[in-house]
Design goal:
Elements lengths: L1 H14 L7 H10 L4 H8 L3 H10 L8 H7 L2 H10 L4 H8 L3 H10 L22 H6 L1 H5 L1
Helix pairs in contact: 3-4, 7-8
């Protein structure tokens, strides 16, 4: 009896593997379907950074997608989005199709001061929450 249980256990383990463990899945989505790492991440429920990690792990070639590089190389674009419009790094990253870590690096490269987060991407208060300030400036959280 225990001999029969082993193949079922192995089959269950195979079903539980992530599509990110399959280099062909990554190549198909990224190259054939022209999806960004962020879009692949949304599809499987992870961040663009996680997708990037698996693409490197499996030696899946990535290309430089022109609009991404051009906009992130422009300090005025970043100042407008991050400072004037007060977008989060995650919001900018989603717009240009990269990770929020890439946005943070570019902000630093352009000597744009990075603010401490007062709310997470889900609208919930983060580390510096004193209650009053978040309520006054956290209208986005109320709208969700």
């Amino acid at each position: 009896m225990s001999v029969e249980a082993e193949p079922e256990d192995e089959a269950e383990e195979e079903e539980q593997t992530s599509p990110l463990d399959d280099p062909e899945f990554l190549r198909e989505k990224y190259h054939d379907e022209d999806m960004t790492q962020g879009e692949i991440g949304e599809l499987v429920g992870v961040t663009a950074s996680t997708v990037s990690h698996y693409m490197k792990k499996h030696d899946v070639e990535t290309d430089s997608r022109g609009a991404l590089d051009e906009r992130l190389d422009d300090p005025e674009f970043l100042r407008e989005k991050y400072i004037e419009e007060e977008q989060t790094m995650a919001e900018i990253a989603e717009e240009v199709g990269c990770s929020d870590g890439t946005v943070m690096r570019r902000l630093h490269e352009h000597d744009i001061e990075v603010r401490r987060s007062s709310r997470g991407d889900d609208g919930e208060a983060a580390e510096e929450d004193d209650g009053e300030e978040t309520e006054a400036s956290g209208d986005e959280a109320d709208e969700e």
